[in-house]
Design a protein that fits this description.
heterodimer, A: 168 residues, 7 helices, 0% strand, B: alpha+beta, Thrombin, subunit H, 6-stranded antiparallel barrel, 8 helices, elongated
């Protein structure tokens, strides 16, 4: 298990890792959202934001999440502000879930996550199609939604281990 | 019931408004701020587009820097792959090069011919130069297919500038910043390319499928049979979105879903460097002369009028000359007609003389024969075998040299 001295530089970097990973994933050309495989894509930032907004919100700066959304829009070529809106909506729903949950349950979180990403992807699709006249393939959105939902469980295991190592 | 509703409201309020010590803004503020940005980015104000352009510049550069390690790994992997198939590729390339060299000569001839014809058509010729641009961001989204190149308005790139991979079309510029631009790839769902398909010269539109291939749409049903497998699709230039005659891809009829697909010549996932074609309208020498004239002479119209009036005067003079000549010729014709009449009369008199002369000849011949054969043709009192002198029968008998007819 990794152990750090608190206030150590490495500890600070390690504590900021989720935000760093988020920024790298929106800046980097290698995107989990597109792995160049037919009908396979998942939205990694959605999983990351939802998990950390739900479990480790003290270390998760929403302003940086908002900025990450802006950068994602610029890099991908979406209308500016759309990803920010999606990310902030995820944070809002995650915060709401945290507030109403007394005993956390991974499966419940998982299905709640499905509901949220479905809603947000629907909003994204509608905004792009109706207001910005983008030609979009709804199948890709559905596939993306499905795999993002599936991968939440896998990533949540890694994230849990990370949080545990951080708290220890 | 009332308490559960209160809990719900408290949870919502807490989610929207409460912020922990780390948070500088509440989620509600950021939520409204996002909507505000979406609305603002949709407006075409100069200040907004300038801000957007600055953000783009920073983000694209940052994205390029962040992607360096990944690009290094990717390029190392590709280089290793290249080395393994180096010799085989070298041989194929050599053959291709020889063929291309020969084709290049004929292409340059066609190009020069084309330039000449274009200049004849509209007095303007397009001078296009291709500038090399580096792909700085190739962030492949599942929904949008675009790349960022390191050339922008500084290098005269405009919205709509055609982008090539070698000589194959890969897309067009849709967003221009000062030092970089965004290129919409042909594979994007929003990309429509008017093409001609050979053989058959079938006109169609290729639409990006969001995948590696394009799909042929908007084609007449009766023309579908004209399309061959492996037919070549090149830009038709319709709508002036893309320049005409640029190779796009080959037709692929062998697919499961009975669609007519296009295999693009270029591999859009492997784009490192591309060419941006900068078009400039250059007036031809004739046009330049004309432009100079309009600039230099404000009296050009007057000069033109003077020239026209001079021309008119010359025409009038020549016209009167022609009229006089016509009169002279008329009189000459009359005189000649008279002469013809006189000659006719003369001819008639000569003819009569000749006729008379021939009669005289006949008479002489009769007299000569009469001296010889008169005894044979004259009637005798004892045997009435001849004819009486002076009668036509007697004359006929003399002319037949004394032979008396039955």
């Amino acid at each position: 298990m990794i152990k750090f001295e608190k206030k150590n530089l490495f500890y600070k970097i390690y504590a900021w890792l989720p935000i760093l990973v988020l920024f790298i994933s929106v800046f980097n050309e290698f995107d989990f959202n597109y792995l160049n495989i037919d009908y396979f894509s998942f939205n990694f930032p959605f999983i990351l934001i939802f998990y950390f907004a739900l479990k480790a919100y003290q270390r998760f700066d929403y302003l940086l999440v908002f900025l990450a959304g802006l950068f994602n829009d610029t890099v991908v070529g979406l209308p500016l502000g759309l990803s920010s809106l999606s990310y902030i909506l995820i944070c809002i729903f995650a915060t709401y879930l945290r507030n109403i949950t007394i005993s956390p349950n991974l499966i419940k979180d998982w299905f709640y996550f499905l509901f949220i990403i479905s809603l947000i992807n629907s909003i994204n699709f509608s905004v792009l199609f109706l207001f910005f006249s983008y030609e979009l393939d709804i199948t890709l959105f559905i596939v993306n939604n499905f795999f993002t939902f599936l991968f939440y469980i896998i990533f949540s295991i890694f994230f849990k281990r990370y949080l545990k190592s951080l708290n220890d | 019931m009332a308490s559960s509703r209160d809990d719900f409201i408290i949870a919502i309020r807490s989610a929207f408004l409460n912020k922990s010590t780390k948070q500088k803004f509440s989620l509600l503020t950021l939520f409204f701020f996002s909507i505000f940005i979406i609305v603002l980015s949709n407006l075409n104000f100069k200040a907004i587009s300038l801000t957007k352009s600055i953000i783009n510049e920073i983000v694209y550069r940052s994205s390029f820097i962040v992607s360096i390690p990944e690009n290094f790994i990717k390029s190392t992997y590709l280089n290793l792959n290249e080395y393994t198939s180096f010799y085989k590729e070298y041989k194929i390339t050599k053959e291709e090069l020889d063929q291309l060299k020969s084709e290049n000569i004929s292409t340059s001839i066609i190009k020069s011919e084309n330039e000449e014809l274009k200049s004849l058509i509209d007095n303007y010729s397009f001078t296009s130069k291709k500038i090399l641009a580096k792909v700085i961001v190739d962030h492949e989204s599942p929904f949008l297919r675009s790349i960022i190149i390191n050339k922008g308005s500084k290098e005269k790139i405009k919205i709509g500038t055609n982008i090539y991979d070698r000589s194959y079309l890969v897309g067009r510029v849709i967003e221009v910043n000062y030092t970089n631009s965004r290129v919409l790839l042909l594979t994007d769902l929003n990309s429509n390319i008017p093409v001609s398909i050979t053989p058959g010269n079938v006109q169609a539109i290729v639409v990006g499928s969001g995948d590696k291939k394009g799909e042929i749409k908007y084609i007449k049903n009766d023309l579908i049979n004209k399309i061959d497998n492996k037919g070549i699709a090149y830009t038709s230039g319709t709508g002036s979105i893309f320049k005409s005659g640029i190779p796009v891809g080959s037709v692929d009829l062998k697919n499961d879903n009975e669609k007519i697909l296009i295999n693009f010549y270029s591999d859009f996932t492997q784009l490192k460097y591309v060419f941006a074609e900068i078009n400039e309208l250059t007036p031809t020498p004739v046009e330049i002369e004309e432009n100079d004239q309009t600039q230099v002479s404000s009296n050009t119209e007057q000069i033109k009028l003077d020239l026209i009036s001079d021309e008119l005067q010359i025409l009038e003079d020549s016209n009167t000359k022609f009229l006089e000549e016509n009169k002279e010729l008329n009189t000459l014709t009359n005189e000649l007609n008279k002469q013809i009449e006189m000659l006719k009369l003369e001819n008639e008199s000569q003819k009569s003389i000749i006729q008379k002369h021939s009669l005289d000849q006949k008479e002489l011949e009769f007299l000569r024969l009469n001296l010889i054969y008169s005894s044979k043709c004259q009637s005798k009192k004892l045997f009435s075998t001849g004819f009486k002198v002076g009668t036509p029968e007697y004359k006929e008998c003399i002319m037949r040299k004394g032979k008396i007819s039955d």
